[in-house]
Amino acid sequence: MTASLTFLPGVGFRQAGVRLGSETRVERDGRTLTVTQFVSTPDGTDLTYEITDGSQNASCVVPGPGPSLFDPDKVTLRDAEHDYAAAFLRSTGVIAGGVRRSLQAKPVPSTVRALELRVTSSLFGEWRVHLELVPFDADGVGRLQPVEASATHEGVTVHVRGISLTAEATAIRFEAVAEGSVERIIGVGGLHGMRAGATELLLLDEHGRACQEIAKRDAREPMDRSELAVFPALPDDARALELVVPFITIEETKAPVVMKLPVVDPLALTFGRYAIRVLSTGEAPDSPRRRNFGPALAVRLDLGGWQGDRRVLFPSGVLVDGNNLGMGYGNGINATAPQPAEMVEVRMPDPHAPKLLTLIAPVVQVRGPWRVRFSRPSEPS
Question: In this predicted model, what pLDDT tens digit does every residue of 146-161 receive, in sequence order?
């Protein structure tokens, strides 16, 4: 099915279908509902909308018995003759002055040109939005042309599967796969497909010209770029191409390492194939964030830096006395430029009570580059 895909800016590769002609908004009582994305193909429907109050204030999420930003809305779609299946929430994000929701639903027929979106929210009330839809892929613009090329390094292979050429952009579809002790790919470039600066991909041609990846700048883009790289439009004389991938992050198979608590002096361990140290354990330091979330066990780490072309970024999980209570990363992880975690935290009422800590599996950044060379396909006639 690769040849039947089309590149849609801000979305990614999709089969032929219908999409929102332009952002659509409705205002009421000082609030605005904006539908930023609607794409429907035989694989399903992707829908993103925002509800905001016009302010630039951060939305405050306060636990309590009343309505919450995170209460799912009831969302349905209908045209003049049919009610379509309800849309199901995929994610909710807090934004300035409101909330952004991304949903999925069953496909809408490609002949539909207008829909009514109905949203019932416990916090924001009821909304009706008229959507005008337009077809895409009818003229072949942006259609994916198949490519088969690959490069392998450190047991990880990057395959280039296709390229889409438009007057505004060059989109490359790729796939990363791994062998041996790898459980899954966590990200190409940065984590979860997020890339910026040194983690962005490059596209080179035979004339020595380098195209820097156009990074995902707008959080409203539903694609996480895990299988998509977007570059500026190629010059007409660029024929021999090379995709350069600087980093890939993997989760290796489970390699549990168990230690007794508390850890007072640095403890040297082997975590999978990697030498690391647990520096100490104890109650997490006080902070405004900590006061919001309560006490936690802090595990301070030295993950050993680069060991060849690999380094541990963080454990994929921890068990406390055999229980999985979740985990945080202290000051967090920058997905576009990840660095080894210096501390992980586990929230619990009494951080001094646990007797055993287990690190489950290492998440590892692998340093490239991978260089995948391929020829630009001939323009379709």
Answer: 999 999 999 999 999 9
